[in-house]
Structure formats: C-alpha cells, structure tokens
Amino acid sequence: MSAKNKANMCKPDNPARLTTNHTAGCISRKNVITAAIHFDSTWMPRVSPDPCASVADLKSQSEQARRLDEEIAGKIKSQGSGILKLVEDFNAEFGAVTPAQSASANLPRWRWSWFGDFDMTAMAMGAQAPTWDARNCCFWPSRQKALSWVKSVSDVNRISIPKWSEEPAFQQMLESRQRWYKAFPDNPPGSLGGASWNQPAGREPVKFLSYMSFIDMGPHLFGADEFMMILAGDAQLADALMEKFFELSTSYSEFMQALQGGKVGCIVGFGGDYACMLSPDLYQKYSVAWDQKLFDYFRKFYAAPQDAPCNLHSCGPSSHLYSHWGTHPLRSNITTMQTRLLSEHVKSLRLNLPETLLQLTFHPEHFDFANVGPDDVRAVLRQAVEDVNGSNAEFVVFAFANDPQDIERLETNLHVMYDEMDEINSCCMSGIDAAHI
C-alpha cells in the first residue's frame, strides 16, 4: 500500500479533526507524538536586543533586528521558498505547547533573557560577566575559571555561600528587567521562576523548579578539563566539592523560587549537559547520587509526594549511560528527559525508560536535515516512532541552512517530516498503533 493510500486509510471520517487554526495558533487535535523545528539561516546576519543595554539602545537594536529579520525573510522568499511558513505551520500543528504562538503574531522572536544560574554563581565566585551574543540571542560564559584556586578540601571549606540578593549581578538583573519593561511594554520579561513542564500522556503539566547539577557546575567553575580530572583522580576533593556545590545550587534555586512564589511540583536537575562526558562509574557516583540527594531534599523542603516528577537531561550521545538510567533509584519519577536521537539506540533507550516522555533531538552532528534525503528522514522518523513504542515522544529538529543552497533540501525534508507526523498522529487517532504504522 502506498504511503498516500495508507494515510487516507488512517484519517477519520470527520476531516474537521485535522483542522488547525494557525491564525489563532491553537492546536485542535491531541497529538500522540509531538515535534518542533528550530530553523536558522546561519549565513545571514541577525541581531537581538542586548538585555544589558539602555532603553534607547534597546529600542534602536530592536528596529535593527526587525529590519534584518525582514531582509532574511525577503531573501528566503526570493528563492521561491516557503520554508518559514512551513516551520510556523509545523510547530503550530505538532508542537507540544498549547496554545502555540504563531509567527504571524505581532510579537518579535526575541525575549528578555539574563545570565543563567551557572553564570550568576560563577560571577558570585569572582568570574567576569558573560558576553552577549546578539546573533544567537544568548549569553556565553566568560570561561574564566573562578575556582581554579581550589586545590584541597580545606580550600573548599573557604568557599562561602553568597547572599544572592546582595550580589551585583542580581541587582543588575532587576535593573535590566525594568529597562526592558520601558522599552517593550508589549513584550515584557518572563517570570523569574519556573514555568509549567509538560508531562507524559495522562499527566497534567506541572510547575518546575530548576537546580544546577554538580556535573554541570564544575565545568563552569573550574573548566571542563580540570573538573573531569578532579572527578577521575581526587575522590576526596570531588566529594567535598559535591557537598559545597549542593549548598550553592539549592540556595540559589530557593532564593529565585522565593521571588516567584507559588507551589512547585517538579524537579529539573537530574543529569546535566556534561553527563555524556562521564564514564558509567563516575556517572553513578556523581550524578545518580546527586539526583537522590536532591530528590530527598526537595521532598522535605516542599513536602512533595513520593511520586513527584523529575526531569533527566544529557545533551550529547549517551548510549553508554542508558543502563544506568534503567536502574536509576528514581526511575519511576523520571517522567521527562532530553537527549540526542541516535537512531540505532532508541529502542534501548525506551527499554530503560519505558514510561518516560522522551524528547529526542535531531542534531546536525548526527542527522543533518540539510545533508540527507527524504527517504532518510522518513526511515529514521518511522523507526524512531516504532522504537519508542509509538507514544510519549517528542522530536526536536535543528534545521540549519549554512548557505542558500541548503534551503531547498531543508524545505523538502521538512515537508516529509510534516507529512509523516500527520500520518502517524492520524493513525493514532484512528486507533492504529503508531509503533506499527
């Protein structure tokens, strides 16, 4: 049976189910498998207002940003491409967030942002402020090794816990928010605390609290190489740092949560960006043990239930850690996790995390939509859906056009992704198991 006939077979008698109101930006169907596309024409210049700038400069930078965005859109359309509308429609139709914001809304793509929690901690330890990246709308750490002077347990004991409200970076953050309010009253800064975190099917989104993990704090404060050497070669120092970093992490998160208020019910803080760099033994000792300590603390501090949901993260290729996730003492609490999509390992990942919402990233390093063919996209997506057992999965695509010649292939492949996602979810709504489409 052809894919087209199979898709028609899957569609229900009522075609209105597939109707999506893109203007309002609301998803009209409940997708079993969700997905999102992040598109960037990287060869084109782009800017975003610097949160550290004055009100006048913010307004000036926003006008420059709008002009460049219009220029990008114009150049892409001049190639006869509809990729920008395709990405907008895709994210509105298959995105996990409801309602989804339409790109046609009269709001800019940029939002207020500030130094991350790792940056704020590093600055409190004496590091310089991060550098604003106007092209990518984010701050980059200074890479200054604020704790390079720490060589012994006695040195660790000299690290003091900051009074966060008195830190210059915190005061600068409040001032930045006020300037942003004045410059963009229709695009105000977001909340200082955690928003809602999507959960697997059958569970409602829940407000989360984010904690810095030990394995991520170390590289920011020591540099990745030096910190990994400490973990591998100086257990006594590593253990002392783990205790101190726990104090730093929890004190910062509780300070920020107190500003926001409200009840939190989900931990974001298991694993980390650097998890993929650890050996299984080091991961068990310094990541899994941290997770358990953090969960026990969170339960006591917030009177959270035993089944409180938690998020696990590991940025890069992490197949060597899957079995440790499968035997994690809090596996049943790990309701969501993000990691790289490695097509040959998805089945193993699902076996180790059978009930978890898997948010899997198509990263150009391992699967580049600009350098593969439509059949490759179709095959990898369908195999991944089968391997996750057709449920509790979200695919995140980073689609980068590094030169104008990439646009045509990207657009073709994203159309394939759209059609496949449409068929998969249509079949699921008709009672057909997505794992066997």
Give a description of the structure:
This protein is of the alpha/beta class and 437 residues long. The chain has a single domain (3-12, 27-436), classed as TIM Barrel (Alpha-Beta Barrel), CATH 3.20.20. 44% of the residues lie in helices and 13% in strands. It has 14 helices and 10 strands. The chain has helices at residues 3-10, 55-78, 83-94, 117-124, 153-157, 168-183, 214-222, 224-233, 235-260, 280-302, 322-326, 346-352, 374-387, 406-429, and strands spanning 33-41, 131-133, 138-140, 196-197, 206-210, 266-272, 310-314, 334-340, 357-362, 393-401. Helix 11 (322-326) links the parallel strand 7 and strand 8.
β-strand amount: 5-15%
Number of DSSP helical runs: 14
Number of strands: 10
Q: Which ranges are low-confidence, i.e. pLDDT below 50, for 5 or more consecutive residues?
A: 1-29, 98-105
The biggest sheet amounts to: 8 strands, mixed
Search tags:
437 residues, alpha/beta, TIM Barrel
Topology, element by element:
Blueprint: H1 3-10, E1 33-41, H2 55-78, H3 83-94, H4 117-124, E2 131-133, E3 138-140, H5 153-157, H6 168-183, E4 196-197, E5 206-210, H7 214-222, H8 224-233, H9 235-260, E6 266-272, H10 280-302, E7 310-314, H11 322-326, E8 334-340, H12 346-352, E9 357-362, H13 374-387, E10 393-401, H14 406-429
Helix pairs in contact: 1-14, 2-6, 3-14, 4-7, 7-8, 13-14
